[in-house]
Amino acid sequence: MKDYCRNCDSEQIEERIAEIKSTNRKYRDWEDSDVQEMFEDEIGLCYECQKEEDADDYKGEGWD
Questions:
Q1: What average pLDDT does the structure give for the chain?
Q2: In angstroms, rounded to a whole number, what is the distance separating the alpha carbons of residues 47 and 49?
Q3: Is 17 exposed, middle or buried (CB count within 10 Å of its CB: 0-12, 13-18, 19+)?
Q4: For residue 19, what are the CA distances in angstroms to 14, 52, 60?
Q5: Do 13 and 43 contact (CB within 8 A), yes or no?
Q6: Nearest Cα residue to 14 out of 41, 22, 60, 53
Q7: CA distance linking residue 29 with residue 38, whole number of Å
Q8: Are 36 and 1 in contact (CB under 8 A)?
Q9: I want to staple 45 with a disulfide (CB 3.0 to 4.6 A). Which of 22, 29, 50, 57 is the partner?
Q10: Interhelix angle for 10-23 vs 32-39, to 10°?
């Protein structure tokens, strides 16, 4: 999952959640968000999304 961007690859992430739920009996009744939490730390941001997030973090801080 580390090759995915949590902003750009939402479809692939949803497919992965569905795959986990269909192949593992333990997770079948779990909510999708609970399944995603298992691998959420592995899902980062692509270069462009990271750049935008960094810009948002600094926007308005000391730029008066």
A1: 84
A2: 6
A3: buried
A4: 9, 30, 42
A5: yes
A6: 22
A7: 15
A8: no
A9: 50
A10: 100
